[in-house]
Every structure is written in C-alpha cells, then in structure tokens.
Design goal:
Blueprint: E1 3-9, E2 13-20, E3 25-32, H1 44-63, E4 70-78, H2 89-104, E5 108-112, H3 113-124, E6 135-140, E7 145-152, E8 157-164, H4 170-180, H5 188-196, E9 209-210, E10 213-214, H6 217-228, H7 233-259, E11 264-267, H8 274-281, E12 286-288, H9 291-294, H10 299-312
Parallel strand pairs: 1-4, 4-5, 6-11, 11-12
Antiparallel strand pairs: 1-2, 2-3, 6-7, 7-8, 9-10
Length: 314
C-alpha cells in the first residue's frame, strides 16, 4: 500500500497523519499545545518548544512500530498563501519533514496551513473532486476568518482571498467571550455546550461590514454588556455564536451575488460548531469538515501530498 505522510505544526496543535490512497483512508494523531489557565493563547517561542517536544512523540505513535511504504511527505510551512505569511511554529514541522524526506529519499511538498484545512474539509465531505473546479472556501478559526475563491491549478489549487475579518478572528472572539464566562482556553466546545442550553434560537444580528470585509470586535463588547446586565451565560454564549453566524451569512450572500452559486466549503475549528453549521445548512447547499477534520489536523496536508505526487509522476 502507498502511504503519504502529513506534518502540521500550527499555533494550537501538533499533528501528523498518514493518507493511504489505495483505500482513501487516513490515520491522524494530534495533540494540543499546552496553554496556562487564564491565558488567551501561546507565545511563538513556547509553541516552537512544545512542538519540538511533542512531534517525535506523535510520529512514534503514528508509526506504532510498523513499516510503511511512504511515497511522499507533505508539510505546512506558513499560515496561508498571502505574501509575507509567516509564523515560527511551522519551522518545527518543516525541519522534521525535510529530515525524513532526505532520510527516506522521497519527495517533500510544501503547503500552507490553510491549504491543509481546505483539503481536509474536501476529504471529510467526500468532495475531493472539487479540487478540479471553482468553489468558495471559508476558513474560520482562531488565527483566520476568511473567505477564499478557490480555483484549480497545475499542482492542486490556488486561493484568492475575497473576504476577511477587519479585526478579531472568530476563534479569538469565542475565546475572549468564553474566558469572560470563566471557561478554560480553548473555549469553543464549552461555549457551544452553554449555547445549546439556551432557550433561544440562533438568529441574525447586525454585523458591521466595510468593502466586503466584516468586523467581529462588536461581539465582545455586546457580550460584556450582557454579562454586566446579569443575562444568563447560556444566552451570552448563543449571542456570540449568532454574531459569527451572521458575519458568515452576510458574506455568503455578497459572494453569491458576485460569483454566482459556487459550492461552499467550510473548515477551521469554529466551523465544527453544530449550531452555526445547522443554521448555514438550512440556507445553503454547502459542505463541512466533520469535527475531527475541522480543527487543526495534518490529514489535509497528507492528502495534498498524494495529489501533487501523482500529478508530478504522470
């Protein structure tokens, strides 16, 4: 069997994965980076240190003492495809992937972390065929809240940013509101649990927009006012998610008007939220990564390495 190794060292998670293109299966092993109680994130120097410690452990778990016929290796080298995109945490994965590539004498393919999210969503939704078509991809996470026009290219696909947050990213908004409610970082799953216990429904709220971009800073201020007014934690959590849903929904409407009804693909940790997903699925024909493929993972990187290797060996 032919295996492709993916490596991803993001600002939140250490991930390694195998993709088997013979049966279209993946094996993914990952571990969150440790964040101190009350902190909103992690410094890059600390992220590099923890990746350096965790990556050998996870590779050992992935291989589990077995031998694999590895055809190629893929690694995320930067957050996204924009010029100047860079984070030191990805250097850890690059160093290990390059060493393995040289030791095994197999090709190394480099991608952005965002590429991996999109590919993982396509794999999870059984929609890898969209790589050969145009579609709109939303990457909504703690580090990114963007909409991208995705077009097929010679190797796999190219992305063009068509919308972005003007300030806070969706995951940052979730964590800031969650921390104000006494939740532990990362707050997404716990905030969702609170929202599911609200007696209200997710609904549209007014979100500031400018030139196709959206602002999420308002949600933190509104939730602070709700907290000061002693509104229930459940309703505050639901309002936060309604705000994010509204920003995404307004963006979808704008993009449909501009580009037509292209397929919509959603990825990123925030998009594993069941309430936001249900609200969008009720309005649009769209595709979501399942929760294990929505949060940071190396599966998409492994899948992309297989696609590139096959095209390069035609």
């Amino acid at each position: 069997m032919s295996y492709y190794l993916g490596v991803d060292t993001s600002n939140y998670t250490t991930s390694v994965a195998f993709y088997n293109d013979d049966d279209n299966s993946v094996i993914n092993v990952k571990k969150l980076l440790p964040v101190k109680d009350g902190e909103k994130g992690i410094r890059q120097s600390d992220a590099v240190f923890h990746h350096t410690v965790q990556l050998p452990e996870l590779i050992s778990q992935l291989f589990n003492g077995n031998k694999y016929d590895i055809k190629a290796i893929g690694v995320s080298v930067k957050p996204c495809n924009e010029e100047g995109s860079y984070m030191p945490c990805f250097l850890t994965g690059v160093s290990v992937a390059l060493s393995l590539s040289n030791a095994l004498n197999v090709p190394l393919y480099q991608f952005s972390h965002q590429d991996g999210h999109i590919a993982a969503a396509l794999y999870s939704a059984n929609k890898l065929d969209l790589i050969n078509k145009e579609f709109i991809a939303f990457h909504i996470s703690g580090g990114t809240s963007q909409a991208l026009l995705v077009k097929p290219s010679e190797n796999y696909f190219e992305t063009i940013k068509v919308s972005d947050s003007l300030d806070l990213k969706a995951g940052q908004a979730v964590d800031r509101v969650g921390l104000s409610l006494g939740l532990k970082f990362p707050c997404g799953p716990k905030l969702e649990k609170l929202a599911l216990n609200s007696n209200c429904d997710i609904k549209k709220v007014k979100v500031f927009r400018r030139d196709g971009q959206f602002s999420l800073s308002g949600v933190e201020n509104q939730c602070k006012k709700m907290l000061e007014s002693n509104e229930s934690f459940n309703d505050i959590a639901l309002y936060c998610l309604s705000y994010i849903f509204s920003a995404i929904d307004d963006t979808v409407i704008e993009l449909i008007n501009k580009y037509g009804e292209l397929p919509l693909v959603f990825s990123g940790g925030v998009m594993s939220n069941s309430l936001i997903r249900k609200a969008l699925e009720s309005k649009y024909n769209c595709y979501f990564a399942e929760p294990q493929y929505s949060a940071d993972n190396a599966c998409g990187i492994a899948v992309l390495s297989a696609i590139c290797n096959k095209r390069n060996n035609k």
